[in-house]
Structure formats: structure tokens, C-alpha cells
Write the C-alpha cells for this entry.
Amino acid sequence: MNPKVSVIIPSYNTEAYIAKAIESALDQTLTDIEVIVVDDGSSDKTVEVAKTFTDQRLQVILNQQNLGVSAARNRALRAAQGEWIAILDSDDWYAPERLEKLVLLAEETNADMIADDLYLIKDGATSPWSTLIQESGEHIDKIFQIDIIYFVETDVYGQIGLHLGLSKPIFKREFLVKHGIEYDETIRITEDFWLDMKCLINGARFFLVPEPYYFYRSRPNSIVRQSILSRLNQCCIATNSFMQQEVVKKNPALMRALSYNLAVFKRNLAYFQVVVPIKERKWLTALTEISKNPYFVSDFISRFSNIIERRIQYYVKGNKSVFDMSYNLQKKRKIPN
């Protein structure tokens, strides 16, 4: 008999964290599960740590080279046998009752996908500093259904909102298989957002539970802290590609929401195409990019007070977390300067 839930854990050089992730999955109150770790070519002891577990519900799959998180997740998806698919990043962890709670609510609401709130916790901290919903500015106190317009409009780069692209829904595997939905392997960041979008555009019933059962760790060396130019460029490409679908073009409200998001991405990309060369002391490149970006001066002025505050926090007060997601959310911003 197939398990109720397949927990997918993609891993890459997270030897210090993966044991906690695996333990949290295996220690769920819902025991009818399988846990699939796909290591994406780690060069540290991640695989060794994963293989210390002897629970028969765990399998470890190895990629001989690093293919990216989307490819790793797809390999696990193809191996999964569970009725539900649950994603767990290898540096995060679940509360013990998470899967039992979400599966029960999913069956009660006839959901195709269902997400909970996220605990936000800094690397090294012993307790969360907040949750995703608390930082969103949204008042959500009961389970409700998410439509695709709301999903896009509340997940705008650099703006206050729910940012459900960070959430980790569980998915009905039958729905994913029926619509041929997998992760886009050309995308190495924001891959959760675009998988959710694929589900929603195919009519998925998506519900949000206001209680947090997922612990989302913010750490300096995670992929979300890597090249801002690469991240923004990928976001522009992915958004533009999604907008080319006929089913999207036939939805004017969705096109407006995506067009706004794309404009925000492009404006930030233009801004950082100046800022990054300045930080690297590539003055000629910076001047060339300024000439291409008529909004740079006004953008810089609008961000100036935040830039100064961060420098004071980092260099004067010794607050080394000012560039982490936790600080950004606390300041109601998500744009690193």
C-alpha cells in the first residue's frame, strides 16, 4: 500500500542541518509516510549524515553532479508514491503534528494543495522571531482559499505582502500527475512560486491555514542570499515566459498582476545593475548602466535612508543580520541594498 505522504528533501552541502530536517519528518505524528532525500552533488558530509538514519521509510538518492534544486526535487517527485507530496528544505524542519494537521484539513476542504503559516527563525536562534503571516500586513485568522490573482498580488518583490511563494504547501500527487506538473529545471530560485502558479493556473484548490507548523531558517549562505542580479534576471525571464501562455493571456486580471510584478523586477534589476558594479569598483560599467537607467537617481534617493540605517547597524552597532531575510521582513522590506 502506498504511503499517505511523501516528504521530499533536496539537499546540497547542508551537513550541519539535514539531520534535524530528517528527524522532523520521521518523527511526525502521521507515521504513514516515506522520506526521500535527493542529494544534489554535495561536497561535504551531507550524504554521510543522511545515511546514518536506519528508518526503513527513508531513502537517499544521489545526483553525481549539482543539477539545481528544481532538478533534485523532480527526481524525488518521480520516485514518490504518496497520496500527498510535502516539500522540506534540508535546512528547515517541521513541527511534529504538521503533516497530520494539513492532510486532515486538505481532505475536509477537498484541497489540491494546502499550506500553513511559516515560523521565521534565524540560524542559530532557539525560537522563531515571527511568522510569515504576522509580517505580511494581512489579517488572517481562519483557513481560506487562495486564488491566483491574490497569490500574485500579495507576492510583489520588495513590497509588504503575504509572499506565499515562500510557503511550502503539500500537494495532491494525483493532481500533479494529471496535469504533468513538475518544477522548471531552468529555474534555480523562486521555484516554489512557479510550481504553485502552475497548479493554480490548472485550477488547483489552494487553501491557507493560519497556524504555523513549518520552521523556515534564515541563514547567510543559503541560495536566496546569492547573486541579486541572477535572481532578478531569472524572475524577469520566468514571469515573462508564464505570461506567454494562452490561458494566462485570456485572464486580464492575472495579466495585469503579472505585468506589475514584471515591471517591479525590471526596475530593481536596472537599479542593481548599477549598484553591483559600484560595490565591485567597476566604475565604467556602473556609469554605463546609469546612462541606461533614467530611474536610478530617484530609486537611490528613495532607498538612501534605508541604506544608511543598514550601514550603521552593520558597521557601528555590529548587527551582522541586517542583510538577512529576518531583518528585511522586520523592516517591512525585502530588497537588500
